[in-house]
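Q: I have two molecules that I believe assemble together. Could you output structure tokens for the complex as a whole instead of separate predictions?
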Amino acid sequence: MTLDNVHDKDSLKNKIRNIGEYARNAAFGLASTTVQDRRRALNEMSLQICDHTKQIKNANDKDIELAHSSGLNDALLDRLKLDEERILAIARGLIEISKLDDPLGRVLESRERPNGLNIQRVSVPIGVIAVIYESRPNVTADAGGLCLMSGNVAILRGGSESFYSSEAIVSFMHAGLREAGLSESAIQLVPMRDRAAVGELLKLEEFIDMVVPRGGKSLIERVREDSRIPVLAHLEGICHTYIHAQADLSMAKEILLNAKMRRTGICGATETLLVDTDIAQELPVLIKPLVEAGCELRGDTAARVIDSSLIQATESDWKTEYLDAVLSIRVVNNLEHAIEHINRYGSHHTDSIVTNNELAAEKFMNEVDSGIVMHNTSTQFADGAEFGMGAEIGIATGKLHARGPVGIEQLTTYKYKVQGQGQVRP
Amino acid sequence: MTLDNVHDKDSLKNKIRNIGEYARNAAFGLASTTVQDRRRALNEMSLQICDHTKQIKNANDKDIELAHSSGLNDALLDRLKLDEERILAIARGLIEISKLDDPLGRVLESRERPNGLNIQRVSVPIGVIAVIYESRPNVTADAGGLCLMSGNVAILRGGSESFYSSEAIVSFMHAGLREAGLSESAIQLVPMRDRAAVGELLKLEEFIDMVVPRGGKSLIERVREDSRIPVLAHLEGICHTYIHAQADLSMAKEILLNAKMRRTGICGATETLLVDTDIAQELPVLIKPLVEAGCELRGDTAARVIDSSLIQATESDWKTEYLDAVLSIRVVNNLEHAIEHINRYGSHHTDSIVTNNELAAEKFMNEVDSGIVMHNTSTQFADGAEFGMGAEIGIATGKLHARGPVGIEQLTTYKYKVQGQGQVRP
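A: Yes, here they are, computed for all two components at once.
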């Protein structure tokens, strides 16, 4: 290692540490803001973004040009691209966030003790949240806005492909914060493209309370591996739709088509169909709309006995999130077998049963160990907005703190406030 | 490394892995038990322990003998020792746990969406909880009982000094589980004294959902350092009592004495007194009862100007959990200074302000970043039972999942149950 490298490394470390320190200091102030303050800041940010679509577009052009020359594929280029309409949608998103109920200061529980102590459990911000994400520049505004509305300081680390776009968006968010009289440190973008910056961020236990990674499996695995700070994430969405023996076939057909094909690239898309052996003869009817929609179908041996046009599925199919027009199919012996398969191969995200048997549905929903369990509906509904929670920062598949959609309420914690009149403990 | 070592290591690893697998399997069954099942098991366990005090006492004698010969000090020997009274208290503890409200199946939220979907957020067990603790054998029953009542499988790893006592207690808990028709795997004791067992446990992400360490700072630091599994813990309790300028002096005096001296070895004991400069002249009056009770007092320079008999405090005193009859004293300029001191040096556990000024109290309780904040009462009240939550497994000082006392409600998580009638997402 040359002397230069050493200096670079130290300087990166110091810069990241400074961001953390500023964030921690800003967190104390932000926790004491009123919901009016936070709403006003979100509205001002939105106005600033609307007033500067041209500047944001220019910054995005720079990202697109660099991405072109580095050979990014068309799908990723499309995700990266901002036009006037998309920029206005970003601004509208901030307004929507500002309309949500204040998640802070809710009295979650209140007890009067026999000795006269009054004990309240009250919702408060978590503090400082680092959001690490990939190419979509709109996440910059969404994540920053959700953190602000919940009284948390955001440290944002976007993909290097969207660096200039994110920088422009954050600069107008800062202008909005200033207009509302809040500290600019409430939303900070890690100002370097260096990949090592993420590693340094993940060491700042002292300043950062939670890390939210958003992106592909490799990003999330890396963050979980390296972080000394608690991580709220979903690794992947291996969602199942189970057609029970007593399912309404036409309902099952519609739900299955929607669950797989409405959008194949989202985490709530079904990846595996489980069909009960008692209804397996209906498989050709069930999958006809999928075939017509161009979905690739991979079945286990029992499924291929019924429909030999299926590609042979292997063990690894049960563990794969395709995020594409591909579906694996397994014939299961009964309800217990379906539950066992899901708990073994699934990712604890979202799983649905289609049946007219209420007891079977209840057993399925109790015993499938996932954040979201469904009966007679499509796994594609796994989404904070569809749940009536407003925008979400992601879907958690861990078990602690939050499970399922993570909206502003899930970005809070609580403290106990104990009010006495001089009581001492006997 | 000899071939023998390799085999030992592999065999330890396999044994621990087996415990994890049994635990995970038992968790699915336990999640479906009724509260009657779980209460019955707790009652049967309690009976079994009452019926076998002699056997437990004999096992404890073995531990005591070994501890003697290895030179354990008297305080630790006392914590380790079980007599008939203590064994009956353990049995009573299980009955108390069985009387708590069922923490499972609570509908935490229910929404009817415009499209007719019904979305319920329902409390469920976390799954498998590993509790790692030091010498007190009663923790074996407490922790096992709290996990069972909340539908969680417990993997218990006690201190090696209490090995035989814990083994005896667990054997009678198993008898109780059998009587109630539940799987013995619901409560498992790691059956070896080898320290490496903890390291192996902490790698079992696949089978264990949460780790709760209970004990000294070094144990908890080690668990946090080594664990791949989320840890719920408090590292230490550096609690503060702040006497504001507008405090009622006689109330302050009583609260301070209780907060420091009622029991000095618990995590809710006050370690640092902050006195407002405007009331600092009253310091001799405030600390007189402490001096009489034999407390060692260490003051900063300003405090020593007022009372030169104080030992000089240094920076390191502000960071120290004495767990003893020692108090550090600092004169602070004002409310803001007190809050800043606490947020900088405290451990986010429990902090109290004594004042008649409601606004000052409100500001203190809002801005002190601790799990428990108090007004006009003693930090020694930081305890699940005192909060009306029943027995606690510990007090959490992290921010995610649970803060403050961790009772059976905090040993649950939730899932979303979505009920449809064939809805698909547009």
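A: One point stands out. The mean pLDDT of chain A is 94.
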